[in-house]
TrEMBL record:
<dbReference type="InterPro" id="IPR026881">
    <property type="entry name" value="WYL_dom"/>
</dbReference>
<dbReference type="Pfam" id="PF13280">
    <property type="entry name" value="WYL"/>
</dbReference>
<keyword id="KW-0804">Transcription</keyword>
<dbReference type="InterPro" id="IPR001034">
    <property type="entry name" value="DeoR_HTH"/>
</dbReference>
<dbReference type="InterPro" id="IPR057727">
    <property type="entry name" value="WCX_dom"/>
</dbReference>
<feature type="domain" description="HTH deoR-type">
    <location>
        <begin position="8"/>
        <end position="66"/>
    </location>
</feature>
<keyword id="KW-0238">DNA-binding</keyword>
<dbReference type="GO" id="GO:0003677">
    <property type="term" value="F:DNA binding"/>
</dbReference>
<keyword id="KW-0805">Transcription regulation</keyword>
<dbReference type="Pfam" id="PF25583">
    <property type="entry name" value="WCX"/>
</dbReference>
<dbReference type="InterPro" id="IPR051534">
    <property type="entry name" value="CBASS_pafABC_assoc_protein"/>
</dbReference>
<dbReference type="InterPro" id="IPR036388">
    <property type="entry name" value="WH-like_DNA-bd_sf"/>
</dbReference>
<protein>
    <submittedName>
        <fullName>Putative DNA-binding transcriptional regulator YafY</fullName>
    </submittedName>
</protein>
<dbReference type="InterPro" id="IPR013196">
    <property type="entry name" value="HTH_11"/>
</dbReference>
<dbReference type="InterPro" id="IPR028349">
    <property type="entry name" value="PafC-like"/>
</dbReference>
<dbReference type="GO" id="GO:0003700">
    <property type="term" value="F:DNA-binding transcription factor activity"/>
</dbReference>
<dbReference type="InterPro" id="IPR036390">
    <property type="entry name" value="WH_DNA-bd_sf"/>
</dbReference>
Length: 354
């Protein structure tokens, strides 16, 4: 019952702040903003009026509810959860995933109500003109069902027992101290200190490690509070982890020859680390008009798939394995498209060696 009363009190305040910030609103508009029925809005308006709030109903076309001109409430203090949500003010989807969506909406209203008239109008103008979308094109936000309790453990510094699915598919159990969360292109990662299973060694010697939140199979809060490592900085640790990850994903060195169009395609479509050693723009081409370049790839298979998309505008010089596999792949594709639709070619294209 106490929680229900607190929710209703928060809704009444939100209704009041909506009218204060936006002026006249209809019952339907208020219901949509508060995610309740119009009948609930009618009851809430009656409750506010009974409490002495000068709220009036304008009848007829274009009518709605409004506050007496000049009336302003000073009930704008932020709760702890609302203050916590402010760092996600431009990321409503992320706030919702962390369980802070309602708090962020309430904090936004309270901040607007506390601003002077001119600044409030400016803030609304910025909100209506700028939007931040962190999800990459043709991608979706990766589901992470254990994200909210993980975020709570990060905030409260609670040690967790995890069952985690590694990148190679192996499922392992870990005891960790979660130190921070990172949202990267629609996927949540967390950095944690891993407890060691060796006697006399409390933590893994590798230091804080990076995990992917979507790979948590099970999470249990131990209730034990840990001390954060002295000098730990989330931004610095994430930058180092991301750099190490990207370098590890580009450990195959290839030498290729590119036409001018192929050179442009690589600059436009390849990952920055793949094209890191391309000759700078303006470098003279070879006598045949092509350019010799070094490209860094994740594996022979990934290089074969990416280079195949460049068609005749790229030629692999080395490694020999990649040249042979790419040649076989493209010959099989040409044979398939040389046959009538639906009839298999003589040779099947090579698959993923993994």
């Amino acid at each position: 019952m106490g929680n229900t009363g607190g929710m209703r009190a928060g809704r009444l305040l939100s209704l009041l702040l909506l009218l204060q910030n936006r002026g006249r609103l209809t019952a339907a508009q208020l219901a949509a903003e508060l995610e309740v029925s119009e009948r609930t809005v009618y009851r809430d308006v009656e409750s506010l009026g009974a409490a002495g709030i000068p709220i009036y109903a304008d009848r007829g076309t274009g009518g709605g509810y409004r506050l007496l001109d000049g009336y302003r409430t000073r009930l704008t203090g932020l709760t702890g959860a609302e203050a916590d949500s402010l760092f996600l003010a431009g990321l409503p989807e992320a706030a919702a995933e962390l369980g802070l969506g309602a708090e962020m909406a309430a904090a936004h209203l309270k901040l607007l109500a506390a601003l002077p008239e001119g600044l409030r109008e400016r803030a609304e103008r910025v909100r209506s003109r700028f939007h931040l979308d962190t999800t990459r094109w043709f991608g979706t936000t990766e589901p992470a069902p254990h994200l909210a309790p993980l975020a709570t453990a990060v905030w409260e510094q609670h040690t967790l027992d995890l069952t985690y699915r590694r990148n190679d598919g192996q499922v392992v159990d870990r005891t960790i101290d979660p130190l921070g969360l990172v949202l990267k292109s629609g996927a949540w990662y967390f950095i944690a200190r891993v407890h060691s299973s060796r006697p006399g060694t409390p933590y893994s010697s590798t230091g804080p490690r990076t995990f992917r939140a979507a790979r948590i199979a099970h999470l249990a809060d131990t209730g034990r509070v840990f001390e954060r490592p002295a000098g730990f900085d989330l931004d610095t640790t994430w930058a180092a982890s991301a750099s190490q990850f990207q370098a590890g994903m580009r450990n195959l060195r290839t030498r290729v020859r590119l036409t001018p169009r192929g050179l442009a395609l690589v600059r436009e479509l390849s990952a920055p680390l793949t094209a890191a050693d391309l000759p700078p723009p303006g470098t003279p081409a070879d006598p045949d008009g092509r350019t010799t370049a070094v490209l860094h790839m994740e594996s022979v298979y990934h290089a074969m798939v990416e280079f195949a998309s460049y068609g005749p505008d790229i030629e692999v010089v080395e490694p020999t394995e990649l040249r042979d596999r790419l040649g076989a792949y493209l010959r099989a594709a040409a044979e398939r498209y040389g046959a009538p639709p639906g009839e298999p070619g003589e040779n099947a294209p090579p698959g993923n060696p993994a």
